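Data card: per-record layout.
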Amino acid sequence: MILYTSGTTGRPKGATITHQSILASAHAQAAHFRMTDGDVLLGHLPFNHVGGITCTLMSTLVSGGAVALLPAFSPDAALRAIERHGVTFCGAVPTMYVLMLGREDFADHDLSSVRLCVAGGSNIEPALAGAIRQGFPGVPLYGLYGLSESSGACVLSPLDDDSETVARTLGMVIGDFEARVTGPDGGVLPPGEVGELQIRGDCVASGYWNMPEETAAVFLPDGWLATGDMVAMEPDGHLVLRGRKKEMYIQGGFNVYPVEIENVLTTHPKVAMAAGIGVPDEVLGEVGRFYVVPRPDAEPPTPEELTAYCRDRLADYKVPRQFVVTAEVPLTPVGKIHKAALKERHLPNP
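The structure for this 350-residue chain is written out next.
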């Protein structure tokens, strides 16, 4: 099958998924999470995305379980489906959890059937991780990392990770897949240094449909996949996300990855979601502009209080120079913040 990338940072590309690659990812996920024929998964992710087709449908198929299928995501429909069908495996992207937890009637739903929660698509911000655990008491929360080019999950939180580790890291490579971190020259970096995450294994797709140049740039010799995500690998193999290579901006000569600032902003009691991009600046070259969606039960924060909040928690060169408080940010069909659309909407054409 051909699955088009979400295009959060650029033009979508058609990843060519093979029988081998999708089954490899599905089997690895099912084995890691010990999925059985008694599991019921919440099916609210679209099937033109690996979150729906691999992480939900195919992993259930290889483990013999069931899917409570929804025609489209809505927080109300998702909560009712969990209750009605006894969903045991709640997988969603972070924004979906934000919307479900933000409903006034959230506590009225019986969610006791859920045995684990999984958040994929982007990092689990520490504040959201805490809110999910509070909303699903006693239920473990795990991170899931994958992309269209890896046919689905390739990195997951180990089952014995504590809550701090789950919120801080992406997890570790699963199955018999391999991971490495490389520098600009392609050399493998030692633990702790930030570079591009590369994945190798049967989960890797065969390339981009009818795009030979783009395929050669991402699908490397010896089977390695260049993910475009910047990470640091800890000595035990845990991967810490620093941000998308294409999202990085240079503020006053320093490299800044928006994800770190987004993680800080979402701990603010008035902030529900945050998304940052680099914008041109005559003095510093680029500066961070961060779009902030207020919590529905709070007064919107002011740019001044957001700046002060960041100054107390970040190095000066990482503090955003611009804030935009907005009712919503553009999302992809799977619910991830659409950075490319955000730039197109708010930056003038060059």
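Known properties of this structure: The longest strand covers residues 271-281. The two ends are 36 Å apart (CA to CA).

See the next section for split statistics.
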